[in-house]
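Hi all, posting the design record for the shared folder.

TITLE: backbone redesign
STEP: 1 of 1
STRUCTURE INPUT:
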């Protein structure tokens, strides 16, 4: 197997809202907020659902990789309930090997409200449910050893137990890749994430906001300097400014695509990572990897949700 993703197995519930809805519910645009089941259900009861899909950040990337013809798998925890069943079916339909045996749990399968405003920004409200209780017993050791790369998401650090699963996966893996996931996530775990990026990961994906926050950068030059110093592959997406890959003294840039009809930014980073990693495992140049990431993210932001048809 080429790549094994490990992340929060979350069912995405996509809804359209206006800016006032975010203000009324004290939500910060473009971020992810963790809530309990009561608050989640309260918000859900006021919304019209556009679409429901097997999601989670790394799961989205893994599906993208599968759609590009790669041999991939995923580990994420669901309950043996209706949503858990649908989640597994959603991945299997996309030819992703699912390395988790679901069972009856006290907590339900995790769910995420993806609220899309008219400017195409997405704001997420997540009830992690059982997804946030993944632990080291849930990690399939054989699947990790049989994969060339493991791809982890920063969101996994948002609760205690998943950290042990994360550490176990890291200790068994060949090449370690992680996405920083979200600026609030970075702010919550700054010293841990800094240590991971600097000392443990081989490849890190981040957007400009996240990496600025991680290293307290005053300017983009600070970020480039940091990228050169760590000696690992650091990939940064910059929205309209394109993307950049830094490893040692090599800096490769790629322009974003112009004149896109942007509908929904959900999954832009996830599909960018899928495109880049597709290039990496198929041995194309860093520039071509960035271009493939850009192509994938450009496609996804012109439709609702984080799945290419």
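Okay, here is what came back for every position:
SEQUENCE:
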């Amino acid at each position: 197997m080429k790549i094994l993703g490990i992340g929060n197995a979350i069912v995405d519930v996509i809804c359209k809202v206006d800016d006032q809805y975010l203000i009324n519910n004290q939500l910060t645009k473009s971020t992810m907020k963790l809530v309990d089941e009561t608050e989640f259900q309260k918000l859900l009861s006021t919304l019209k659902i556009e679409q429901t899909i097997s999601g989670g950040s790394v799961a989205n990337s893994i599906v993208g990789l599968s759609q590009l013809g790669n041999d991939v798998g995923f580990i994420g925890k669901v309950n043996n309930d209706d949503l858990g069943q649908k989640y597994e079916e959603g991945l299997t339909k996309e030819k992703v090997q699912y390395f988790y045996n679901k069972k009856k749990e006290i907590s339900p399968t995790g769910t995420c409200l993806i609220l899309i405003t008219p400017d195409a920004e997405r704001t997420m409200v997540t009830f992690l449910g059982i997804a946030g209780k993944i632990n080291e017993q849930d990690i399939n050791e054989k699947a990790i050893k049989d994969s060339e790369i493991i791809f982890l998401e920063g969101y996994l650090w948002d609760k205690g137990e998943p950290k042990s699963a994360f550490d176990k996966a890291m200790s068994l893996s060949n090449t370690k890749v992680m996405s920083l996931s979200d600026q609030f996530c970075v702010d919550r775990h700054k010293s841990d994430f800094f240590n991971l990026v600097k000392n443990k990961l081989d490849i890190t994906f981040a957007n400009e906001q996240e990496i600025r926050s991680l290293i307290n950068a005053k300017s983009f030059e600070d970020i480039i300097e940091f990228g050169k110093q760590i000696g690992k592959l650091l990939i940064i997406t910059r929205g309209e400014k394109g993307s950049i890959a830094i490893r040692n003294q090599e800096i490769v840039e790629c322009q974003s695509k112009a004149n896109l009809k942007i509908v929904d930014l959900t999954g832009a980073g996830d599909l960018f990572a899928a495109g880049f990693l597709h290039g990496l495992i198929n041995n194309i140049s860093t520039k071509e990897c960035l271009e493939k990431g850009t192509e994938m993210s450009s496609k996804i932001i012109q439709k609702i949700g984080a799945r290419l048809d």
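COMMENT: The domain at 57-100+131-300 is CATH 3.40.1190.20 (UDP-N-acetylmuramoyl-L-alanine:D-glutamate ligase).
Let me know if anyone wants the other runs.
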